[in-house]
């Protein structure tokens, strides 16, 4: 019998603490209860996998030949509260395979009503863990010390939590919203929502609800779309509504503490924005059609253009205008000079609306004077 020689508490999802072990052969495992809690599964349902196999809806997506048998080990880790006991554990490759299968089943819309909460959690976990692995690899290569669990927790928390705090309710299993949920929450007509969704069809993908789900929420329509909470978050902050403004204010109220408010002068904006918008889907040199944006913040549907370093004064004004017109059809846009103060940039972002461009610089004056004066001298 193998031995669990190292023990630790794993908290990938804030508030959900699971027992993790490393066996004497170096294999990473979780306790049976910890695995069930992590995946959001009923404990007995997880136990049944070992005897009856994976659920029918997952079979097309599960790894061929996956061993679903449980592993019994003896706990010898000195710091474990279960020392000297025998315990059923699940290996990390099994947990990952189950997680991936549930996520793929969500994408293919084949999960049963009572399985959707597991699928939703697995999708969020996968996204959080992929980002965490990337963050960790990059930062460790740069010689930084990384708290992996803290990073994973931060990435797991998405727009869903914030929306629920604002009183948003979903019609389907508290996980999937329909258009009526969104229009009621944002206080906008459905035609306005439809127009927004058409513009952002590449970023916001609807979920086709099956007929039994539609009937279960009190509708008789033969077809109906649903939307994940993360996409509802994009809609809320992307539309010019009172709720959208409040959400952005809440977001910036929370993230502004991550950066020094007195930051100004010639700073490295990529480093600052990466820190400030961690977990919000910040991407640099992001392709939009045939153009590229300096910074794109996915969850805010926002493009940031930093001017000053590369002599934007020499850009072709006509082509740049065409570029702006194309981008602002789908996103809000803020252009700022690299000497702008951080609080000025945040104020500009709060005012940003899809279809308009906020400009936080005066190129003509800045270059004509060629001085080191503060941007506030020109605002």
- What letter string, H or E per element, gives the SSE order? EEEHHEEHHHHEHHEHEHHHEEEHEHEH
Give the overall form. Answer: globular
| Strand neighbour order, sheet with most strands | 1-2-3-5-4
Termini Cα gap: 72 Å
Rg over CA atoms, rounded to whole Å, is: 24 Å
In short:
The protein is of the alpha+beta class. It is built from 15 helices and 13 strands.
Can you characterise this structure?
It is a single chain. This protein is of the alpha+beta class and 379 residues long. The chain folds into 3 domains: 3-155, no CATH class; 159-249, no CATH class; 259-377, Endonuclease, Chain A. The protein is built from 15 helices and 13 strands. The chain has helices at residues 32-39, 43-52, 92-107, 116-141, 148-156, 159-165, 179-186, 190-199, 211-216, 229-238, 242-255, 269-276, 317-328, 342-351, 363-369, and strands spanning 3-13, 16-23, 28-31, 71-75, 86-91, 176-177, 207-208, 225-228, 282-288, 291-297, 302-307, 332-337, 357-360. The strands form 3 sheets. The protein has a 5-stranded mixed beta barrel. The protein has a 5-stranded mixed sheet with strand order 9-10-11-12-13, with helices on both faces. Helix 3 (92-107) crosses helix 4 (116-141) and helix 6 crosses helix 10 (229-238). The chain is globular, with a radius of gyration of 24 Å. The chain starts with a strand and ends in a 10-residue tail after the last helix. The model is unreliable at 260-266, 309-314 and 363-379 (pLDDT under 50).
